[in-house]
Specification:
Layout: H1 6-141, H2 145-161
Helix pairs in contact: 1-2
């Protein structure tokens, strides 16, 4: 079966210690150095990622501020455009109202002038007609005094009615 001999144990222990010593001197330091280097590179990568995250956060805040400013500027431009539109429309309405009033006044003046001209023409025609009638009446009535008085009375009564 299995038997353990002291010689084998001693030689195994010596071989193990020699291999451990050689590994410590030759391989252990490079293995530890590469592990430490790997650890440092991971730490550096974590720091870089945190720095990038912080920069992204700052950029995001900066972008949000820029968007906010752009929106405010856009709103101000829209407000100015609306105010300008309202002013232009108000000015156009005022000019249209003034033009309307001028045209209406001009039309009223023209109507008044035409009315006065028509009244003057009618008065002239009435005066001319009255003179013609008076001439005819005078010719007929000059023949008799009594008829002349009756005709005058008749015309006076008619004149009072109108």
């Amino acid at each position: 079966m299995l038997s353990v001999s002291i010689g084998t144990v001693i030689w195994s222990t010596i071989a193990f210690l020699v291999v451990a010593f050689i590994l410590t001197k030759m391989a252990w330091k490079p293995i530890l150095a590469s592990i430490k280097e790997r650890e440092e590179s991971i730490d550096e990568a974590i720091k870089s990622a945190e720095k990038a995250r912080e920069e992204m956060s700052n950029l995001k805040a900066s972008n949000e501020n820029l968007l906010k400013e752009a929106r405010m500027e856009r709103d101000a431009m829209i407000k100015d455009a609306r105010e300008t539109k309202d002013k232009i429309m108000a000015d156009a309405k005022d000019r249209a109202d003034e033009e309307y009033a001028r045209i209406v006044n001009s039309a009223k003046d023209a109507i008044r002038s035409e009315k006065l001209a028509a009244i003057t023409e009618i008065k002239n025609q009435v005066a001319s007609l009255s003179i013609e009638i008076a001439e005819q009446v005078i010719r007929q009535e000059l023949k008799s005094d009594e008829k002349q008085k009756e005709l005058i009375d008749k015309y006076l009564q008619e004149a009072k009615l109108n």
